Model the fold of this input.
Amino acid sequence: MNTFENVLIIGSGVAGMEASLMLSKAGKKVYLVEKLSLIGGKTIKNEETFPNMDCSTCLVAPIQQEILQDQKIDVMTVSTVQKVSGKAGNFKVTINKKARYVNIAACLGCGMCYPVCPVEQSNEWEENLINKKAIYVPCSGSLPNVPVIDADKCLRLNGSEECNLCVEACMFGAIDFTEKNETIEIEVGGIIVATGFDMLDVSEIENLGYKKYPGVYTAMEFERLFAANGPTEGKLTLRETEKIPESIAIIHCVGRKEVGYCSSICCMYSSKHAQFLKHKLPEAKIYNLYSDICVSDKTYQKFQKNVAKHSSKFIYRDDKSELEITQNDNKLKVSYQNNKGIQDAVTVDMVILANATVPSNDIELLTDVLQIEKDKFGFIDTQSFRIGSVVTSKPGIFVAGCAEGAKDLQSSVLQAEAAVSQILSMK
Done:
């Protein structure tokens, strides 16, 4: 077997999908490993992408479909890389593929199995804004549109032989409790890591009131609130009260001090949120509280300036002073120090925290398995002596997208293309 013809890609976000399709078109056999039950990454959590406010799912769905139909791409969902040995050109990889307990070929995605399941659990894909069942798809429009059964929560898989409700509800016989976890061994010539990012947990930053006051949301929670395929189907109301907010404060640079770097996309998605709010709630008062503006692309600058002019009031806050959020009579008071060094405040119904992007939560385990180094921020390290490098500390293993550091979609795609060129140049 010529292992140079085989490539492993870990992570199926935009970077991983782009690399998969490019390598397939170049004649390579691709093993695309994804720990979730769907492909597409966090982009599909967004309703729109900046700066053109394109429909995110409309952009990504054709790519997802192409990947699922590509005979040279072996998509392994609910799977993780357990072991890697060998060297560039001849890696031996062990993959743990969990049982889905639903036959992908037999399932038509009708959804009849969800309502009958008696188990309720928090839906982390929907930022815990709603619950899901023990059998579920993460969100509407998931691809592949086939549910997975949570083995830790399913009554049947935990000894309750009486529970057979999802089997009885499925007229296509797709539920299969005899499925077992698989250990798959493959040989590849090169590896691309595209595991994406997670968002900083701001619940421990006490002055922000997150999880203390229901009107305080993280950026990704807000993304799911206004997404048509989200938990409210795009209806923008506050949790608990279900009131439509009349005033909103968007707080920039949340957690920058804690992580020690600029996440580079927060200013743009905060501007996007402001524009959406103005479109959805034209009478609402919208404030962007910032200590710095990072919009490097020429189209981004035009977009941000337009939002500042028409959709939101931008207020400078002194980052050296701690911002504080308190609540009184269901109103949120955001206290800050202004550009004159004077304590000031705005009172609003809703606060959106533009929290920092951080390395994916399983990056520590994965870098140990791959035996590659991390940088001082916890992202995958690249060769410092090569500008724009995608080469990791181990020959034959490359990185693309937000696994290397916070970046936008365009930069993630460019890095994926660079990683593919490195793979194709291997001999």
Q: What stands out?
A: DSSP finds ten helices and 24 strands in the chain.
